[in-house]
Amino acid sequence: MRLTIIHPVVISLLIGIFISSGCHRNHNSSSLDAGREPLIEPDYSGVTVPHNIAPMNFSILEEGVHFTIRCISSSGQQSFILKSRDGRVRLPQKKWRALLSDNRGKVIKFEVSKKLENGERVKYDPVYMHISDESIDPYLCYRMLYPGYESWSGMKIIQRSLEDFSESSIFENQLLEGNCMNCHTFLNQNPEEFLIHVRGSLYGTYFVDGKAITRRDLRTENMIANAVYPAWHPDGRYVVFSSNEVLQVIHMIPGKRNEFYDQSSKLVIFDSDLNTMKEIGKNDSIKYMGTFPCWSPDGKYLYYCRTKQFEGAFDLAKQKYDLARRSFDPSSGLFGNVEIVLDAQKTGKSISLPNISPEGNYLVFVMHDYGTSPIWHKDADLYMLELNGGRFDIMDLNSTEVESYHTWSSNGKWIVFSSKRGDGITARPYFAYFGSPDEVGKPFVLPQKDPTLYKRLDLSFNRPEFVTGKINVGPRDFAAASRKDPVHANWSDNE
To answer: 105, 3, 6, 88: which is closest to 46 by C-alpha?
Structure first.
């Protein structure tokens, strides 16, 4: 399966561009032709973007004392002109919106020219961009933190508008005694229904229902560890968590950084109606470690990753996780037997982070050489599985660096994923258009008002999640909830 940039019009336009390292005189003007596109950052050349995306600002990485940028619609009519002395291109919001609105399903281009110190002008080949008729969800929610091994100071959960550059904090751990927080998870991407884990002195899983926040203690004496990775059942009653004993090791091997792995892990399910927790598969004859739960959109199957519970001597390099699933009956809260969807012995790699498209046809997952945590594995790549036919393959949107956490937009036309392709250390959110397994657009990074921001910002964007609207609670609401005693869950032995 080869995943390629969609829209033949874009391909034909780009193939027609003549690539050359030198310049030649344009006989019809006084300018020189570079014979190639300008180098720009971020690389937005040939990408497919939603018609409601924020301005795709970029920097021109070429020598020159002055730059002219002509933004031209698909009709060939010039829409507007920008000037820049430092190479930074900031597209006016109103003009950008009008340009995208007028060119839905079409191609726009940027014509860049520069003035040299000797007064000569150089013209570059156009940079093309396809404007999709498919919209993207208006907000993205992510955790911002330093990409270190031990420190979690200054953590924030941010909501960022994808239609402009506005952003606001949802949660700031400095208001909760500096405790670690993670795994924000939404019910059907609803901004009014989500949860956040907090570790430390103000521990608990904070459930948001509109503007009400309930602090819950989900761990019982029957659990091996805290509730960790969550998956909200589509009907809102149930949440499945993995309960993980996580260990960290620092590598002595060149090119490796550190490693997170599970010493043990179990899947547990929380019933919000009964305020109970219970273990999934506790009567299985063979003991397995389960993690990274994920529901099918119809709520009839729970997908997750599993490997045999190790005993005695342990070789992390041999630990590989299968992709498995169980049927589920929401009326009784009971699960069926295990089915293996992808066998790690056959793939030769370990599987993590499954996520299913909204219509239920495709499952994207991360595959890496071994273990359960891909965030420091340069070999971690995104794969796609066709659930109806069983075909799977690596996706072309990968890089030579880490690709990890990913989610689908509510209309199933956009994928956002974390990638460390910029510097190998900090994760950034990248987006790609999805038409079919064979029609996937070139990835583009989240646009910023200042296109040089990523060069200066040493924070990672962690766990990007699409949200269908604006979240109306903030850091002080969580601080107020933290001062209340947690509601303790009860254990259930029913299976």
So the answer is: 6
**Which are the contacts of 35, defined by CB distance < 8 A and separation ≥ 6?**
18, 19, 20, 21, 22, 23, 24, 125
For β-strands 350-356 and 362-368, DSSP reports them as: antiparallel
Total-model pTM:
0.91
Structure-token match 């209309």, residue found = 411
- Distance between CA atoms of 390 and 325, rounded to whole angstroms? 14
491, amino acid identity: W
The strand pairing partners of 248, in sequence order, are 260
Q: Is residue 493 assigned to a domain? A: no
**DSSP letter (8 states) at residue 391:** -
Q: Are 355 and 366 in contact (CB under 8 A)?
A: no
Listed residues 78, 104, 132: the one ending a domain: 132
Cα dihedral 27, 31, 32, 38 sign = negative
Place of tokens 């790690």: 344
* b/e sequence 398-428, b meaning 16+ C-beta within 10 Å: beebbbbbbbbbbbbbbbbbbbbbbeeebbb
Q: Are both 123 and 175 inside the same structural domain?
A: no
Q: What is the pairing mode between strands 487-488 and 212-217?
A: parallel
Residues 128, 144 within the same domain: no
CA distance 309 to 262: 10
Q: What is the pLDDT of residues 86-126, one digit of tens each?
A: 999 999 999 999 999 999 999 999 999 999 999 999 999 99
CATH, residue 94: 2.60.40.10
- Which of 132, 151, 168 is a domain's end point? 132
Residue partners of 33: CB distance under 8 A and separation at least 6: 23, 24, 25, 26, 122, 123
- Quick one: 160 and 103 in the same domain? no
Judge whether residue 22 has pLDDT over 60: no
CA 308 from centre of chain? 28
Distance between CA atoms of 327 and 335, rounded to whole angstroms? 6
151-176: burial string, b at 16+ Cβ within 10 Å, e else: ebeebbbbbbebbbbeeeebbbbebb
Determine contact, residues 444/136, Cβ cutoff 8 Å. no
CB atoms within 10 A of CB 183: 16
410: containing domain: 139-488
pLDDT digits (tens, 9 = 90+) for 464-478: 999 999 999 999 999
